[in-house]
Amino acid sequence: VRIHEHLVEDRRGPVTWLRIDREDALGALSRSLVTRLGSYFDELHTDDEVRVLVLTGTGKGFIAGADISEYDRVPQAAFDDYQRLSRRVFTALEQLPQFTIAAVNGYALGGGFEVALCCDMILASERAKFGLPEVKLGLLPGGGGTQRLARATGIRFAKEAVVTGAFYSAQEMFERRVVSRVCVPGDLAETARTTAESIAGNAPLAVREAKRLIDQGAQTPLDVGLALEQQTLSSLYATRDGAEGIAAFLQKREPQFTGK
Ligand code: CO8
């Protein structure tokens, strides 16, 4: 289903695919596209049917960054307003309760790399290229690139990437632990599908709480994180799915999870 001029949604049970469809501009994020992504993530936040979101692009582009053509001498206030919008929308993606997978088919540059960094997992085609080239425009990454990349890879590589604006291969991003798996181009969608379905087949509350705990833990002292883990596990044990998972194992059958 087309939900925006450049956005196609495909719901397949608990897994939803969202494809940026703007091949002629390599998936560049127009302001209208970012706005639509924002309303989409807001709606998804309370959608219990969807458990995994796969975000992908079309052709040679995943997302080649902000649509540079929209920022030729716009008033400062409009530029600042766009930054605020991007920050809000990228954070909404990062904070979705669903598990999110970026299936990076091609260029993930600037805001495109930053979108991928807001996802829980990045799968990449061998053809993917990652980079933060904003310094080449006299700017800086404005969608969390200086912050999220540094947290993902450590500060030295992040500084290198930001000040050189270089493009990096999927393999290099794999070695830097940003990308989880590198696929031959024809296998990317299938790898994303099987990964998404296997996650969606696990107990929904367990998956959701695991994501939340790991994200929270990254921002808290260890003892606080460990206490949260215990509390959360304890409440999962009390759920119907907790009992079902254990019973199914002991009865040597597939569990029937209900998300309760
Ligand atoms: N915005 C708008 N159009 C784009 C963008 C973009 N980011 N990227 C590519 N396109 C368009 C090209 O203009 C071209 O259009 P046309 O056919 O009409 O000329 C079409 O996509 C195909 O691109 P190329 O012909 O350039 O294809 P190549 O294979 O030769 O090169 C590259 C591919 C290397 C990816 C090249 O297109 C490129 O360098 N793109 C720009 C990448 C970039 O700098 N991204 C960062 C943008 S800034 C950002 O994301 C941070 C936000 C900061 C705040 C916002 C202020 C801008």
UniProtKB/TrEMBL annotation:
The record, for Pfam families, names:
ECH_1
By its UniProt entry, which CDD domains does this protein fall under?
A: crotonase-like
Cite the Gene3D superfamilies for this sequence: 2-enoyl-CoA Hydratase, Chain A, domain 1 (3.90.226.10), Lyase 2-enoyl-coa Hydratase, Chain A, domain 2 (1.10.12.10)
| Keywords, in A-Z order | Lyase
Is Transit peptide tagged as a keyword? no
Endpoints of the signal sequence: none
* InterPro entries noted in UniProt: ClpP/crotonase-like_dom_sf (IPR029045), Enoyl-CoA_hyd/isom_CS (IPR018376), Enoyl-CoA_hydra/iso (IPR001753), Enoyl-CoA_hydra_C (IPR014748)
What does the record give as the reaction this protein catalyses? a (3S)-3-hydroxyacyl-CoA = a (2E)-enoyl-CoA + H2O; a 4-saturated-(3S)-3-hydroxyacyl-CoA = a (3E)-enoyl-CoA + H2O
The similarity annotation says: Belongs to the enoyl-CoA hydratase/isomerase family.
Which PANTHER family would you find in this protein's record?
ENOYL-COA HYDRATASE, MITOCHONDRIAL (PTHR11941:SF54), ENOYL-COA HYDRATASE-RELATED (PTHR11941)
Q: Which protein, by its recorded name, is this? A: Enoyl-CoA hydratase/isomerase family protein
Record the organism.
Blastococcus deserti
